[in-house]
Amino acid sequence: MVTKVLNVRVSDVDNDILNVTWDWGDGSPTETNTTGPALIAIRVYNEHMWDPEIEQGTGGFNVSYTLRVTVDDGHGNYAWVNTTVTCVIPDNFGPSSDLEGPSSPVTPTESVILVAKANDFEGEPLTWTFVFNDTMSDFLTLVYYTPASDPATWVWNNITHVFGSEGLFNVTLFVSDALGLNQTGLHNTSDRASVWVAENQPPMNTQIFSIPQDPVINCTEGHVDVTLIIEVYDSEGDVITAVWGFGDGSPAATNSTPGGAFVYTFRQLHMFTGPGEFNVTANLTDGVPGNEVVEFLILNITSNNLPPGVVLFSYAAHGAPGNLHVFVGEDVTFEILLTDAEMDDIELVVDFGDGSPPSYYNLTEYSDGNVSCQENHTYSAPGYYTIMIRYTDNEVGLLDHSLEYSDTIHVVVDDVPPTADAGDDQVVYAPCTVYFDGTGSLDNWGIANYTWTFVYNGSPVVLWGSTPSFEFWSLQTYHVWLTVTDMSGYSDSTIVTIEVAGFIPEYLPALPALIVMVLVPLLHIVRRKKGVI
Question: Which fold has domain 96-197?
């Protein structure tokens, strides 16, 4: 398509209005422009697009049109002029193309993808011709068409084919942007792909082996790391997948190759946590039904497993060292911390020695090499009780793995409430920090809590501890309650009075002299301002 803007100068000695008619010479309708009075020459413009019909795939020539411009004044007077408009048809470039087949052998029943693409400079419709050859003769020709595209843009036209028999096949692709006789030379490009078709062979492999060959579980780490190794190869270059079974009940592991006819080495690391004889398997397949290969390795793992041990047995007791005790009816929390070098599951039985049913645990969650449990227990009668802990990791190894641990707990009765003592009443002078003293409070087994309460400036105040303090600024008499609580929850309360005064007594006699020293000079100044001396 060619678009041009054209103009012509017209005039009339009679100053008539002129009609300018354009005949474009390409069969399209004429167009007329009307001017104003044209005594003085007037330039008239018009625009037109020529769209010569060009046969697909041709170019490199010109197409000419005769443009005729006619002018009339409406009184039967005419004038005209002819000119030639030339449309230059550029050279037409042929397409470029590419064809790719599978890089490894395929089976006779496999649907093979042939990847075909082409690029035409002008973006013209394309004709795709695929010719199949069995190295002796052409046996199949397939023709496809694709519509026009954006110029210089790759267009894809992939096809699939099932060859049905073994052998070497060549596929030639012809791509043309021309029609009929013009499908020659640059307008017809070709590419070739070879496809090797053969029955798929199963993967080949070597026997598997392990490093180390005679694994021993480390007693401090609780496991042994074993590397299982096997070499594999597939003649068709298929992706080989190995599924490992370790014979110890753990989940299977999977390895795979990226594909290609190369020898690959699979190395699979596995952690064995217990001794025994394990049947390790490697199930190899290239994804083709019937092409599975299984290899076996009998792995004998020994162990020098160590028994578990008690790291901590503790409970919150009262009293001084040598006289620790808990109280009847108290909910006592017992904490037990066990360790095992191999981090085996530990079965634990706790008997509190008072005839209550034992508690059973299966400890499996390790943290920093230890497992723990907590048990709350309440004794209903005073006395000395032997707590017995029985534990095992159910493993066979060094030493005895079924063990016991015991401890004695002293249970006492506390039925005597405490006696609260908040100290002496105090008189202080604001501002002042008051120190409370509840150390005189008594209990036969010891006081667990001191709570002081009072109201200051309309708000409640709560203090804790045997000797807290508080800063007073407001003048008032305060009644402070002290409540003490012992280990068994018994409590007692008392009150102490804090009187906060405004002046320190030793300065009271000096107040009159101070007033005289301030007021006499002030009165003298007032009298002078009034004219009285």
Answer: Immunoglobulin-like (2.60.40)
Token pair for 153: 């843009």
**Nearest partner of 464 among 448, 488, 476, judged by Cα:** 448
Task: Say whether pLDDT at 281 is over 50.
Answer: yes
Question: Of 354, 364, 105, 122, which is closest to residue 237 (Cα–Cα)?
Answer: 105
CATH 2.60.40.10 is held by the domain 309-412:
yes
Locate tokens 């599975």: which residue? Answer: 292
Burial state string for 491-527 with b = 16 or more CB within 10 A and e = fewer than 16: bbebebebebeeeeeeeeeeeeeeeeeeeeeeeeeee
pTM for the whole structure: 0.38
CA distance 227 to 230: 10
pLDDT at residue 147 tops 50: yes
- Domain positions in the chain are 2-89, 96-197, 204-303, 309-412, 415-533
Strand, coil or helix: 281: strand
Q: Which CATH architecture has domain 415-533?
A: Sandwich (2.60)
279 CB contacts (<8 Å, ≥6 apart)?
245, 247, 296, 297, 298, 299
What single string gives the DSSP state of each residue in 135-175? SS-EEEEEEEEE---STTEEEE--EEE---S-EEEEEEEEE
Average pLDDT, rounded, for the chain: 89
pLDDT band at 532 (very low <50, low <70, confident <90, very high): very low
* Torsion sign across C-alpha atoms 149, 151, 153, 154: positive
- Residues 204-303: name the CATH superfamily: Immunoglobulins (2.60.40.10)
User: Residue 381 above 70 pLDDT?
Assistant: yes
Mean pLDDT calculated for residue range 392-404:
86
